[in-house]
């Protein structure tokens, strides 16, 4: 059983049947009985029946003999009675959705028990209209473009719904509610709202916090009265996916300052606790997400995610995701590799392949000879047949790691907090799942803290949407987070640029910040 | 200017334009600015923007330079922002509707000033499917019947809307809100709800108090976000038209007990004041509304509405509505005639044509000889060429007048109030407009009170709907009236039957109740 009150609930009630002495109308009888039977947390809230439901609800109530289960949406400030069931429902499915620009990830959850009935990912069909956000914003400005992009998102979601329904043996009309989190552009496109001003100074969204609306209003195939709850955005560059993440890890309720890092196309970082929240976003992501490195790829099957170099035997070992034949390298693999290359002194503190090799043993010499090859003008490290990493790739990674550390430093400096004061650093997404914090510290990407501080938290955008399904009070909490959070603009931040320059070394210009990392001069 | 806050308002606001330092989303900016600019009566209410309006409202706000007039519905417990205007509106039209079973009567009202822009009546096209309520209830049970009846009502209303728009030079989309009052069956048919149980014991409506809904949901041609506010019913036999009437005359706020009488197919009577209300309905109407008398007709042009007999010259004079050639007699005409016949001793205290004439003068004898003719088996009084009143007609009228007086007596007796304690008796509708209370007292239909007590109030169903348009607080007041009112069932009331028998004489079995009326034994 779910201890909190979900967004949609089935409430049992037994009404006094009508008689000559009590001739209240069916629907008024139902509403009055329900109002008296509400759990204390919902008591006293205005209760309405949407026009489209009057006939079906009243007929079902009468057919059931004036007792049964009322299905109710817990909307902000009011309750909406949308269905009446003669028997206790066995399931009350709701859908939680992370609306990523490349992939959607969703779960079907039973609101009665909190149990996950199905979970899966799907391609966002919007990629047909452009891989990146900016292309899609431009596409939306064309005739029909916005409608097509909306339809692509809706089709993608409907595809997942159909899949889930088959998997969990439920009908689409049994799904009563949907929570969704996505970045600000994704939210606009899903709602069919023009994202035109999102990428134009002063970067103003059309809406940050839309009110809940009917899923059918955008063409989703769910119960006709299913509500869509879209997690609010803070602004153009800080979307509902992050707000959802803050909810998921409970950052807004933390007693001690903590941090949430989410690396996607951008690195988005939130610092704070129950009293304040500060956030920023910066372009630290591409190299880590597989967008820049020549051989880079998303953390998905066939991506090399882990690399180690034994510095005695000079053997290189690697592991690919799902142990599939390697086709490229993902962010965590690249970090692993770079840290190992640094410790093996194959790259220097600037992240450059050593011009002159400083190793001593024959095994080491042979290792380098075999692996370091010239490809055109550049030096390239051959990781495995068909997968190599060039100096250009390493340079991109160095910029990303420098940006990441500079973001974390700038954010903490802004509020006068030392890294050592952080109780937890939640690391979200595939990045958090696959990264080895020890290696990230070696590179000077993450601060030199005990490894227990780093907490991989998976897809927090989806997790927050799931939690919202099961606790309607999180809706107001999400709006509060939006109001409470301070957004720090890095583009115009001089401090950030200085810190960024200082971070473009391994581990840092000031190695005393990383006592655990060996320094080779 | 309207002093109260109408159901829909246009509120001026000036927002701070967006900038890099203030990058709130357009719609959130609009909502926040509006929330801060609300009149104190509306302050603090949750404010939502319906999904369908997001794009148009945000675009209009931006195009207007972030200042202008927000068009807002004052819904129960929340506000809904549905439009944004760059300039102060010159008109904000709303529609008030009395949905009668035979005729609709409506007014187009400017919510800014309270001015009536147009007012008219139209036939309820449902009459094609049956003249009376019961036929329509049966028709609604047939396949497609309910849909056809709903469509007929909607078509009738759309016809009036088109007419008003032409007359007042407004577009249907400029009409933002609609209030409607009708009896319980009419309300069900307009909403497309089955009236099946309305006429079957224990006479349970499907709904008494529907929440406001979009006018477009039933196919009305108004602004796409125009709301329909249907005045609540108390039960199967006490509809929103009466609740509207109570609002209109302010019966629920009266310091001293007062009464509202509305005669349609039934006579519906409400007694009470600010602390309590009691109501009942009975079949006192048909003879008075023109439904029973052979020559009877509705109070409309060509109906004889007034009759007098000069008892010196023995001249009969009459007046028809609109001075049109007489085609029949309406309720007030019949009452006038019966009272005059009684005073002329042409009918006796049982309402029967005198078997043996008791008059004395030659003129009187001649008058009777010319006017009283045998038609088949019955004595008939010739009023004017082509219009006569038979004993059967008089009998029906006598039953109606007896029922009316018995209803009034029973109601007062129920709460222990004497007629003399009533401050006012509001008489609604055509009946109130045309009736001569002096003559009704002579017949013993209305209590023998000073004539100033009787107050003709016109179409109170329409008047209440008009008042609701201009004062959104009346919605809650109407719901309160429904909760507060006690309905007295007459069908099973033994007292009523006794009183009815006592009232079947002119003026009454107990003439001491009517000191102003001469008694001829």
From TrEMBL, chains A, B:
Residues 258-517 form the RACo C-terminal domain. The keyword ATP-binding does not apply. InterPro entries: Corrinoid_activation_enz, Raco-like_middle, Raco-like_middle_sf, RACo_C. Pfam families: RACo_C_ter, Raco_middle. It comes from the Bacteria. Residues 1-21 form the signal peptide. Keywords: Signal. Residues 94-253 form the RACo-like middle region domain. PANTHER family: IRON-SULFUR CLUSTER PROTEIN, IRON-SULFUR CLUSTER-BINDING PROTEIN-RELATED. This is Uncharacterized 2Fe-2 and 4Fe-4S clusters-containing protein, contains DUF4445 domain. It comes from Candidatus Electronema aureum.
């Amino acid at each position: 059983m779910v201890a909190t009150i979900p967004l949609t609930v089935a409430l049992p009630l037994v009404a006094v049947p009508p008689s000559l002495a009590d001739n209240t109308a069916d629907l008024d009888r139902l509403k009055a009985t329900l109002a008296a039977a509400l759990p204390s947390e919902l008591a006293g809230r205005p209760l309405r029946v949407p026009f489209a439901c009057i006939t079906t609800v009243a007929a079902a109530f009468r057919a059931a003999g004036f007792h049964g289960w009322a299905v109710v949406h817990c909307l902000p400030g009011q309750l909406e009675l949308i269905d009446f069931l003669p028997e206790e429902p066995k399931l009350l499915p709701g859908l939680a959705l992370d609306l990523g620009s490349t992939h959607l990830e969703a779960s079907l959850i039973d609101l009665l028990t909190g149990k996950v009935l199905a979970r899966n990912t799907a391609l966002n069909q919007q990629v047909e209209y452009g891989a990146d956000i900016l292309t899609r914003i431009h596409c939306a400005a064309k005739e029909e473009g916005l409608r097509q992009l909306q339809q692509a998102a809706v089709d993608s979601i409907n595809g997942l719904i159909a899949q889930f329904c088959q998997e969990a043996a439920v009908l689409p009309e049994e799904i009563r509610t949907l929570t969704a989190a996505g970045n600000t552009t994704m939210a606009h496109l899903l709602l069919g709202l023009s994202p035109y001003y999102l990428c134009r100074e002063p970067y103003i969204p059309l809406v940050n916090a839309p009110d809940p609306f009917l899923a059918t209003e955008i063409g989703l195939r769910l119960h006709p009265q299913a509500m869509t709850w879209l997690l609010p955005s803070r602004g153009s560059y800080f979307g509902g996916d992050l707000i959802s993440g803050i909810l998921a890890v409970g950052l807004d309720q933390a007693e001690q300052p903590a941090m949430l890092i989410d690396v996607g196309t951008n690195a988005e970082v939130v610092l704070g606790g129950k009293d304040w929240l500060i956030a920023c976003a910066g372009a630290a992501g591409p190299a880590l997400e597989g967008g820049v490195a020549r051989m880079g790829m998303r953390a998905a099957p066939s991506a090399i995610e882990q690399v180690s170099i034994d510095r005695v035997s000079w053997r290189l070992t690697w592991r690919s995701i799902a142990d599939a034949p390697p086709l490229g390298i993902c962010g965590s693999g690249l970090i692993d590799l770079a840290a190992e290359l640094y410790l093996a002194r194959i790259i220097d503190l600037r992240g450059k392949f050593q011009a002159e090799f400083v190793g001593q043993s024959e095994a080491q010499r042979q290792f380098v000879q075999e692996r370091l090859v010239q490809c055109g003008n550049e030096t390239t490290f051959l990781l495995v047949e068909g997968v190599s990493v060039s100096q250009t790739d390493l340079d991109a990674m160095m910029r990303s790691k420098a940006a990441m550390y500079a973001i974390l430093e700038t954010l903490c400096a802004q509020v006068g907090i030392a890294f050592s004061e952080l109780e937890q650093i939640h690391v979200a997404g595939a990045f958090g799942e696959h990264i080895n914090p020890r290696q990230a510290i070696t590179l000077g990407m993450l601060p030199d803290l005990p490894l227990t501080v780093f907490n991989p938290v998976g897809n927090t955008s989806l997790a927050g949407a799931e939690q919202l399904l099961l606790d309607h009070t999180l809706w107001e909490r999400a709006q509060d987070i939006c109001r409470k959070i301070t957004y720090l603009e890095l583009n115009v931040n001089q401090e950030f640029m200085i810190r960024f320059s200082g971070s473009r070394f391994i581990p840092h210009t000031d190695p005393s910040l990383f006592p655990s990392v060996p320094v080779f001069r």
